[in-house]
Amino acid sequence: MALILAEIKENIGCITLNNPRKRNAFSEELLGDMLDAIADFEQKKIAVIVLRAEKNAKVWSAGHDVTELPKSRRDPLPYYSPLEKALRVVQHYPGAVIAMVQGGVWGGACDLVITCDMIIGDPTCTFAITPVKLGLPYNPTGILHFITRLGINIAKEMFFTADPVSAEKAEKWGILNHLVPTEELENFTFNIAGTIASRSPLAIGVIKEQFRILCDAHPITPETFERMQGLRRKVYDSHDYTEGINAFLEKRNPVFRGE
After folding, report:
1. Of 214, 224, 249, which Cα lies nearest the Cα of 91?
2. Sign of CA pseudo-dihedral 30, 31, 35, 36
3. The dihedral sign for the CA sequence 240, 114, 15, 171
4. H or E segment at 95?
5. Which of 50, 212, 214, 249 is the most exposed place for a label (fewest CB within 10 A)?
6. Are 41 and 4 in contact (CB under 8 A)?
7. How far apart are CA 139 and CA 90, in angstroms?
8. How many C-beta atoms lie closer than 10 Å to residue 239's C-beta?
9. Are strands 59-61 and 48-53 parallel, antiparallel or unpaired?
């Protein structure tokens, strides 16, 4: 069975996550298929992409496939990992990428959705960024995605608690552009996609790239970057990281020691 479904209709590309048996977890294979579909859309100059799960999904995506994360002493989120590539491709796509969300969005999937240009959800959607449940050191670019969209206070609450954010709170916090009834979600999303597709693709692409450049305009010194990498290494070399991964795989609560 295909892990994603890709289709094009009236200059709108749609990518549907299609592995509900594994809660649409972001495996290397699934993300590879997603990247191939986006590359195909770009080659065909598709104006808008809608990224979604299957209809009435309970879980939009569980995020990283934890079974593919390194057990210890390796950066779990390196620059060339499939998820990091997907995040950059969404940011650089020369058209709008809209996440249409039903069900729970967890971990790395939350980062991907936050990185989309717009998010439209129904009352079942929830959002949780969960690295602290695994003892996982999130990377600076991922943290910046949340700060840029939500502000530092809300980003800290999401990262520090790892608790799900309800649809109502997500709308209040600015995660959602629109919260609409379930029965209206598809029509509403594709109507907005159709409106965007009718506008100048060249202007949208240039404006989107300006947004990206301006949001990324946070220069840091090489020393600061190296310090952040050292801080992250302290975590993925730790007992807590190994314990978090093992506890997840063994379906038990982790016992973190802070070391």
Report:
1. 214
2. negative
3. positive
4. none
5. 214
6. no
7. 17
8. 14
9. unpaired
Token couple for 99: 């996440």
Q: How many angstroms separate the CA atoms of 137 and 232, rounded?
A: 5
Where in the sequence numbering do the catalytic residues fall?
Answer: 64, 108, 138
Terminal-residue alpha carbon distance, the chain: 42
CA 75 to chain centre: 19
* Token output for 242: 């190994």
Quick: pLDDT tens for 126-137: 999 999 999 998
In this predicted structure, the answer to whether residue 219 has a pLDDT above a threshold of 90 is no
For residue 109, give the nearest of 77, 63, 59, 169 by alpha carbon: 63
Q: How confident is the model at residue 201 (pLDDT cuts 50, 70, 90)?
A: very high
Q: Note whether 151 and 177 are within 8 A (CB).
A: no
Task: In whole angstroms, give the CA distance from residue 81 to residue 108.
Answer: 12
233 pLDDT higher than 90: no
| Closest to 204 in 3D by CA, of 120, 100, 118, 85 | 118
Average pLDDT over residues 240-250: 89
Residue 95's Cβ-side half-sphere holds a number of Cα atoms within 13 Å equal to 26
Contact, 150 vs 127, CB < 8 A? no
49-61 residue pLDDT tens: 999 999 999 999 9
Q: How far from chain centre, in Å, is Cα 186?
A: 20
Q: Exposed e or buried b for every residue in 165-184, given b needs 16+ CB within 10 A?
A: bebeebbebebbeebbeeee
d(CA 66, CA 54): 22
Cβ partners under 8 Å of residue 174, min gap 6: 149, 150
